[in-house]
Amino acid sequence: MNDNTKVVVALLAGLAAGAALGILFAPEAGAETRDKLSDSLKNLGDSIKETAAAEIDNLTGLKDKIINNFKSKIADAEEEYQDDAEHA
Predict the structure, then answer these.
(1) What are phi and psi of 26, to 5 degrees?
(2) Is 20 exposed, middle or buried (0-12, 13-18, 19+ CB in 10 A)?
(3) Is the C or the N end of the chain the one with fewer CB within 10 Å?
(4) Number of other residues whose CB lies within 10 A of the CB of residue 42
(5) Are residues 44 and 16 in contact, defined by beta-carbon separation less than 8 angstroms?
(6) CA atoms of 21 and 36, how far apart (whole Å)
(7) How far apart are CA 56 and CA 22, in angstroms?
(8) What are the strands, taking DSSP E only, across 1-88?
(9) CA separation for the pair 63, 70 (Å, rounded)
């Protein structure tokens, strides 16, 4: 994970922890508190899924870039080998 992703994940975790503590200490009925906590955790889960999906996309792009670079180097090496073979 890059630094920006780590910051976002830490921020989301902090927000979820703060929301959970706020809900737990709020003077509401137990059922309402559990519902709010459940909603907060669901939102955190959704945020984590979105962040993970974005990172997977980044990794896929990086993988494609590396593969294309590798294929290009192989093609260049093959061309150089053939040129050397023709001139030998």
Answers:
(1) -75, 145
(2) middle
(3) C
(4) 10
(5) yes
(6) 11
(7) 33
(8) none
(9) 10
Amino acid at 34: R
Rg, C-alpha atoms of the chain: 25
Tracing tokens 């508190």 back to the chain, one arrives at 33
**pLDDT beyond 90 at 74:** yes
CA distance 41 to 21: 12
Over residues 22-57, the pLDDT tens digits come to: 777 777 677 777 787 788 888 888 888 888 888 898
* Tokens 């780590």 belong to residue: 6
The structure tokens listed for 34 are: 């559990």
